[in-house]
Each structure stands twice: as C-alpha cells, then as structure tokens.
Amino acid sequence: MLRLMTISARALHTGHCITCGSLARPVLASRAISTSGFLGADADNDELVKVGFVGAGGVSFGTKEGPWNHSVRLEKMPDVKFTVIIDPDLALAKQRVREHSEGENGYKWEGCQVFKDYHEMLEKTSKDKKPDAMIIGVPPWLHGSLDVPSSAMEMDLAKAGMHMLIEKPISMRPAEEVERLGKELEKIGEEQSLIIAVGYMLRYNPAIETAKALLEEIGRKPTSIVGRYNCTYNNIYKPQWWDTLKSGGCIVEQATHFVDAMRYLSGSELRKDSIQALGVGPDMELSDMPPPPNAEHTVKAGNRVNRATVSIFKFENGSVGSLNHTLLMHGSNFYTEMDIYGDGFVIAIKDPYQHPAVFVRRPHSDDLVEVPIDKKYDMYEKQFAAFLHAVRTGDQKDVRCLFRDAARTYAASWWITEAAGSPSPDGSVPE
Ligand SMILES: NC(=O)c1ccc[n+]([C@@H]2O[C@H](COP(=O)([O-])OP(=O)(O)OC[C@H]3O[C@@H](n4cnc5c(N)ncnc54)[C@H](O)[C@@H]3O)[C@@H](O)[C@H]2O)c1
C-alpha cells in the first residue's frame, strides 16, 4: 500500500538568502530527500467505508478563505460512500447533499441522510447507513469534553463504535480534562480497534515533511525553532471566531497548527513552566480596513481575540522555540514561515499553505539551497488516504496525529494563550 516517494533534486537552481533577500550563488541542489508517501487509494483493500460528517460548514464543504474542503477530497477517493450529514442547520445539510449529488461523484451521496444532531443519528440510522467513520468539523466549544455531556461528542461516537477524524481545535475545555479525554478515547479505541485521528494536516504538508526528512538526514537535533504565522483578517466573517470564549483565541484556534508542527519537528514537548508570552489586544487601533461583516466589532470587547501574540518557550529536550502570531494581513493569503536552527544548519520552511518551499544550509557549508519538493500533492488528500487506509486495515502507522498526541498540542496552545494574558479561554461552555 505504501511506497517511497523520492523528491527529485537534480535540478540546477538558485539559492535565495532568506535573511537578506539577496540571491546566493547558484548551487546544485544536494541529495534527493525521501519522504514517505501514500497511494491515493488502498490498492489491496477495496472495502467500502461509510463516511458521515458532523458539521456541514466550511472545513468539510469549503469556504472562500482557504484550501480546505474535506468532502471534495474524500469523494474523489475510491470505495467511500457518504451516508449522513449532521448539522442543526438542516437546510444547509440538505443543500450539501443536493450539490454533491449533482456532481461527478453524485452516486456516492445517494441516500445520504441529514440529522440535526448526532444523538438523533445514533437513534435513527439503519445499520446499512450507520457510518464507519465520522469527520468532525464543528465550532470548538461544541466538542472535546469528558465532563460536560453536551460537549462529549467524541466519547459518544467512540462508544457507538465509530472511527473519527476530528478537526482542531479538539476542544475548548481545560487542558487537563482534554488529556483525560485522550486517555479514555485511547482506551476505547484499543478495545474496539478504532482510529481516532486529528486534522493537524501540516504533518502531511510537503514542506514540513521535507524539513523532517532533512533533519533525519542531517542527523542533528534542532536547537531553536522560530514560527511566524500571520493571518489575513478581512475574510473572517464568523463572530464566534473573533470571540476567545468560543474559539479559544488565535493560538488555540489557528496558530495551534504551528505549535503542532514545532512539536512534530522537534520531537519534544513544550515545557509549561518555561512559557512566556505577550499579546496585543483588539483595543489597539491598527487598521484602515472596514471591519468584515459579523466580525470583531460584534463581539463583546473583553472577549475579542488578540491581534498579535509573541511567545517564547523551552522544549523538554533543552532546545528553545518562539511563536509569533498576528491577525493583521489584508487580502487572502496567509504569510507563514518557520526556521529550524541547529549546530551548523538552518532549515527554512516558507509559506506551507499556499506555495510551500524549503531551503537548507547544511553543516560545513555557506550555501543556502532550495530543496525541490513536490508542490502538487495535497496535504489534506494525503491525510485522508492515511485515515481511510487505517480504518480499513487497522494499520495506523501512517496516521500522523492521533487524539492523545493532539491533546498535547492543545495543552501547549492553551498554555501560550494563558501566558499572553487576557482575553483567555476559561474552559466554560458558552450558551
Ligand atoms: N484544518 C483546517 O485546515 C481547518 C480549516 C478550517 C476550519 N477548521 C476547523 O474546523 C472547525 C469547524 O470550522 P468551520 O469553518 O467548518 O466552521 P463553520 O462555522 O463553517 O461550520 C460549523 C458547522 O457546524 C454546525 N454545528 C453547530 N453545532 C453543531 C452540532 N452540535 N452538531 C453538528 N453540527 C453543528 C454549524 O451549524 C455549522 O454549519 C473549527 O474548529 C475550525 O478551526 C480547520
């Protein structure tokens, strides 16, 4: 099922200095970097997987702001059928079924049922429609609890024997509760052979993947990792996104992708007692742009998310990191990058969302070279291929983020938010 994908590195190209912006001298890209790849389909296992969606919103069905759209990726995969969509907005759920039914893969949506909540689905779905796997994409405060029954979706679906791929943030509850939830889910998962994965899709991003392979090839540990995540704000129309009590704030909701990538690349955990952070609140007059409809200005002033957050921390292995998030860019493209420094080397990851690129300066070299990577492959597709393969076969070695692992990223994101000060989530479940 799996094969090795070799990224071609034969091309002559020009190294670009990331610090001064000047062109370094032309260099021949070094050795090819091998990263493990997946086939788009399970060649040896064509077992039909019945898929359901919890949430008919943007992440699973697409938005104007980003590349995500889980249903479009999933429906291209062989041997899947969509049997339920759950959303209190039944009209939206029906519209999603209608639109997909008219498409090229419409037959995969035939008979897809809609329900207003998952309890109703568990009660009323016939055996032939009961999903094997649920894709959970709902606002953060509605899921990921162990102690609050109204937000205990994952526990209920696991008890009903369903595999899950859950979108981040995995919760809005205190980190220690989410840690306990992770342990419970792992237990049920082992008892019932369930895959409970989380959508930290940057782990499948070609730039992150190449950086990880480079670290292995260089064979030295990172000493310092610097992440910069700058988000555009003029297309964010959901009031709950701007409300820290509902979204968790920009680190828990968004920069958590970089917190996770830093954990993944460093192979170590953030130390809670080391975290320091500062934030710029929404009270600072920053913009000449009119506010997007239903945005920041509609949220209670004290609950609004930070415009900028800067944090520094230590990892358990002794290395250090820093994360800088802003909500300041105009237009639609994020500006994101990450640098990894270690003895004699730097690995620079540029723009993993839109135009992923990786540069490396190896030990005993003055040259910063771009490493050719396959920019065509799609991180979301790869994530789902790994998930479906694991659902079919029970082999989860290519699922790169299971719930317990994600709970550690959630905790670190929560700690950074707390350290940056008010506003910060308090673990309560908003009305
Ligand atoms: N990994 C990524 O690339 C990525 C991208 C976008 C969003 N996300 C994450 O996905 C999650 C959902 O975001 P979104 O943009 O789809 O939000 P959204 O607001 O567009 O959609 C959420 C949907 O959930 C529905 N809903 C509310 N309560 C529900 C319930 N109890 N049961 C079922 N459905 C319910 C809403 O009616 C809405 O249609 C967020 O946590 C977000 O951070 C991840």
Give a structural overview:
Helix 5 packs parallel to helix 6, helix 6 runs antiparallel to helix 11 and helix 9 crosses helix 11. About 30% of the residues lie in helices and about 25% in strands. Strand 16 and strand 17 form a beta hairpin. The relative contact order is 0.17. It folds into two domains: about 230 residues, Dihydrodipicolinate Reductase, domain 2 (2-Layer Sandwich); about 150 residues, 3-Layer(aba) Sandwich (Rossmann fold), CATH 3.40.50. An eight-stranded mixed β-sheet has the order 12-13-14-11-15-16-17-18, with helices on one face. A six-stranded parallel β-sheet has the order 7-6-5-8-9-10, sandwiched between helices. Strands 1-4 form a two-stranded antiparallel ribbon. By secondary structure, the protein is of the alpha/beta class. The N terminus is likely disordered. The protein is built from eleven helices and 18 strands. The protein starts with a strand and ends in a 12-residue tail after the last helix. The site of nicotinamide-adenine-dinucleotide (NAD) has 26 residues, from helix 1.
